[in-house]
């Protein structure tokens, strides 16, 4: 039985897919050279290049940090609590996710070889490394490992979700929200709540991570599925406040920090500001109804259905448009959205073409 479509969540999935691509389009202009050649950066590996380009990256892409949390929230909204038998659930999910992932890992390995970034032997070695980590060192594939972890845990947590009261869920989400503040607390106190070099599982460890976004979406489905008048002001406030925090912290860190992970402090998916923006966008968009335009409705649904395939393949297309526009256009103000939009449209068209192939689910999910 196919799941019931919720048009607002289709829109959110399309937005999240575009935002991922825009984030990666922006990375060309503020990060030093990637050690494994994912992009053709100029500069020391993992160094923060800064300058005016970084200003525009921050302005454009701070909101886009919600992309992955939104993907997880949409997944949690539809799946939790798991009602299928364990074997059926895992087979269905892993067939859709794992097989295309392995295929694209192999394709990226040979893609890097044909671009002259790795030797042929290293390409095969990268494929063999897939069970350990994303074997081709293509950064965006980290998401699939995280998603697999959630799929494995969803059936385990579902019995609790079935019986959990509103107060139980609120307590979990409160503690999870506190865990989202830890990246900032660590700037003052590097080790808190039992953290030490011999202990990597402090007090809030079990309330942290992407699982919180999935449970947040389940909570919304259970208690706030219908459109409520307070969703608009609350959602708007969360998005604006979260964006301001994200932007200002990045701008401040850009002045004082040289390493990428320090500058991107407020861009972490597990930060309170990104959580605020993600929740705000979810509340604002989830109840949008289908428009009177059949063409628009069908396009949104089509992109939503193909978003996983677009996610997997977009890096190849992104590099093409970067090479095309980087020297042709001088202003980063124009280049970032132009590269992102062209890549988004092209990724959709390529994925749409692939969807007509036999057994396409093994290629694009």
TrEMBL record:
> Which chain regions cross the lipid bilayer?
12-31, 59-82, 94-114, 142-162, 169-189, 204-220, 232-255, 267-285, 306-324, 336-357
Question: Kind of enzyme, top EC level?
Answer: transferase
UniProt membrane topology term = Multi-pass membrane protein
Q: Name one GO biological process term.
A: enterobacterial common antigen biosynthetic process
Which is an annotated GO molecular function term of this record? O-acetyltransferase activity
Domain Acyltransferase: from-to ranges: 8-351
**GO CC annotations, alphabetized:** plasma membrane
Q: Subcellular localization, per the record?
A: Cell membrane
Could you tell me the keywords of this UniProt record?
Acyltransferase, Cell membrane, Membrane, Transferase, Transmembrane, Transmembrane helix
The EC number on file is 2.3.1.-
The record's InterPro entries line, in alphabetical order, gives:
Acyl_transf_3_dom (IPR002656)
Major place of residence: membrane
Q: Which Pfam families match?
A: Acyl_transf_3
Q: What is the protein name for this chain? A: O-acetyltransferase WecH
Q: What is the lineage of its organism?
A: unclassified sequences, metagenomes, organismal metagenomes
């Amino acid at each position: 039985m196919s799941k019931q479509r919720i048009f607002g969540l289709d829109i959110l999935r399309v937005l999240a897919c575009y935002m991922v691509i825009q984030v990666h389009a922006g990375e060309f202009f503020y990060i030093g050279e990637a050690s494994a050649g994912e992009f053709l950066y100029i500069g020391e590996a993992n160094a923060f290049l800064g300058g005016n380009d970084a200003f525009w990256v921050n302005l454009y892409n701070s909101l886009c940090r919600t992309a992955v949390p939104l993907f997880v929230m949409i997944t949690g909204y539809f799946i939790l609590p798991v009602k299928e038998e364990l074997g059926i659930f895992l087979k269905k999910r892993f067939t859709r996710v794992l097989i295309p992932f392995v295929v694209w890992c192999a394709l990226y390995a040979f893609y890097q070889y044909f671009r002259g970034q790795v030797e042929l032997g290293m390409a095969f070695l990268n494929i063999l490394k897939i069970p350990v980590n994303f074997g081709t060192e293509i950064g965006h594939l980290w998401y699939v490992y995280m998603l697999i972890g959630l799929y494995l845990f969803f059936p385990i947590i579902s019995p609790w979700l079935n019986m959990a009261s509103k107060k139980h869920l609120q307590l979990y989400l409160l503690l999870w929200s506190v865990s989202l503040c830890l990246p900032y607390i660590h700037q003052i106190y590097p080790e808190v709540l039992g953290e030490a070099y011999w202990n990597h599982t402090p007090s809030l460890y079990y309330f942290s991570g992407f699982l919180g976004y999935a449970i947040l979406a389940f909570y919304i489905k259970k208690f706030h599925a219908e459109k409520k008048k307070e969703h608009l002001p609350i959602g708007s406030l969360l998005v604006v406040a979260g964006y301001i925090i994200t932007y200002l912290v990045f701008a401040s860190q850009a002045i004082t920090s040289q390493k990428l992970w320090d500058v991107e402090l407020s861009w972490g998916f597990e930060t309170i500001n990104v959580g605020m923006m993600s929740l705000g966008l979810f509340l604002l968009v989830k109840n949008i109804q289908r428009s009177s335009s059949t063409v628009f409705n069908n396009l949104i649904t089509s992109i939503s259905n193909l978003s996983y395939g677009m996610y997997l393949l977009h890096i190849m297309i992104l590099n093409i448009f970067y090479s095309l526009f980087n020297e042709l256009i001088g202003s980063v103000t124009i280049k970032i959205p132009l590269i992102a939009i062209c890549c988004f449209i092209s990724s959709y068209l390529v994925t749409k073409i692939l969807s007509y192939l036999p057994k396409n689910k093994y290629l694009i999910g």
